[in-house]
Amino acid sequence: MTQPPNKDAIQYAMENTQVLREPDRRIDTFGNTGFKFILISELMDSVGKIRVRSGEVVAEKPQIITPDAYKQVQLEGFDEEAGKFLAWLKDKGLEPVFFQYGFIFRRTEASEEVITDSLEAVKERVLKEVLRQDDPMQAVIEGVDDAWEVGLLKFAIDMIEKSHEINQFDFKRRGLL
Question: Which of 9, 20, 25, 162 is deepest in the core (most CB within 10 A)?
Fold first, then answer.
């Protein structure tokens, strides 16, 4: 197992994570939302070796209203590096406003394979297969191998932020705002 990333590694992962294919759906306003992910990364110490991880990440709103002192983001199935990423966001003043209500991110066990090929060729094949399958909940992400969970969590947070307007509309439509 690799060492958890330090603050420089987190910053590097933030800057070098990009979504190659975004899911067609957004975060549900009144329920849980799961996204399938394929995360592609180059092995740092091996030329021409690409790791492809796949799994699912679920974003859940808290089921129980808790006092402010206990409102926090919970991570289930993530390694220590994801928790360090959340602490890094808080230290930098970049913590999303919705975190104040508490949130749960759950990651399933990720399968992985290492492929000997160029990064561009692997990305092209993966994207072609994802397009063929046409799953509206499938995301393809390119990230940093050692801090891949940082990239995955960044993706989930970005999806929540992009869902804000739709969620706000849903609240207004139901008379909750």
Answer: 9
Query: Phi and psi at residue 21, in whole multiples of 5°?
Result: -145, 120
The secondary structure element, H or E, covering residue 131 is helix 119-133
Question: Rounded to an integer, what distance in angstroms lies between the CA atom of residue 47 and that of residue 24?
Answer: 34
pTM, rounded to two decimals = 0.71
Provide the strand spans (E) within the chain. 18-21, 33-42, 49-60, 73-76, 103-107, 111-116, 138-142
Residue 2 lies in a domain: no
Quote the number of domains for the chain.
1
Task: For 76-93, write each residue's pLDDT tens digit.
Answer: 677 777 777 777 777 766
Structural element, H or E, at residue 149: helix 148-162
pLDDT for 171 equals 47
Domain assignment present for residue 1? The answer is no
Helix axes 80-91, 148-162, angle to 10 degrees: 50
35/4 Cα distance (integer angstroms)? 24
Host domain of residue 57? 7-173
pLDDT exceeds cutoff 90 at 74:
no
Buried b (16+ CB within 10 A) or exposed e, 122-158: bbeebeeebeeeeeeebbbbbbbbbbbbbbbbbbbbe
